[in-house]
Amino acid sequence: AGAEVAASLGGAARFVAADVTDTDAMQAVYDEAERHGPLRALVHCAGRGGAVRLVEKDGSPGSLETYVAVIQTNLVGSFNVLRLAAARMARNEPMPCGDRGACVLTASVAAYEGQIGQAPYASSKAGVVGMTIVAARDLAGKAIRVCTIAPGLFDTPLLARVPQPVREALGQSVPHPARLGMPDEFAQLALHILENSMLNGETIRLDGAIRMAPR
Question: pLDDT tens across 11-47, in order?
């Protein structure tokens, strides 16, 4: 519902639909952004899931097609979005803090404690974690920072598909606060990363101290 959300903000936002793995589509996103000023900030949240066991319950090998599709969106998409944004940020004049731009990627606690059936998702998010410090070092000479947020259980549209009793049980599994995280809490951390020039190359867990069980 991107267009509706943008309209609800009273002209303060623009919506451009895009496949994050498509270079031309993402260039169109950044073209629209730069009509309103230099590209200084990126917060990249696009991702998808897909359950795959190495050996399925019927004895068949897990789906390579699903695995590749999840990696393509979550990891290749993150690299594509980041590289295209960084190339534009590198042309900016430095701000008084010294930054030309700052980028926030999204991983997951599954990068560290992936559950049964999460091989595609967990390995894609582990790839984002691994890319973060490399990207920060790579772009340091351009004065562009890169950090990643690794959320735990958050109340997102993806989780909205789950029945309410299951959502409540998931929230109670978080040590403290014993609830699902809220999108505003993710946004607060993303904004702080963008504003704090000493944060660079770091992946920050935002999870209420949860450590995911095997299933």
Answer: 889 999 999 999 999 999 999 999 999 999 999 999 9
SS3 93: coil
Active-site annotation holder among 30, 67, 112, 121: 121
Give Cβ neighbours of residue 13 (< 8 Å, ≥ 6 apart). Answer: 5, 6
To the question of pTM greater than 0.70 for the whole model, the response is yes
Burial of residue 193 (CB within 10 Å: 0-12, 13-18, 19+) is: buried
Q: Look up residue 41 and give its two tokens.
A: 């900030």
Spatial distance between the Cα atoms of 190 and 201, rounded to a whole number of angstroms: 14
Respond yes or no: is residue 30 known to be catalytic: no
Task: Find the Cα–Cα–Cα–Cα dihedral 29, 33, 38, 40, rounded to 10°.
Answer: -70
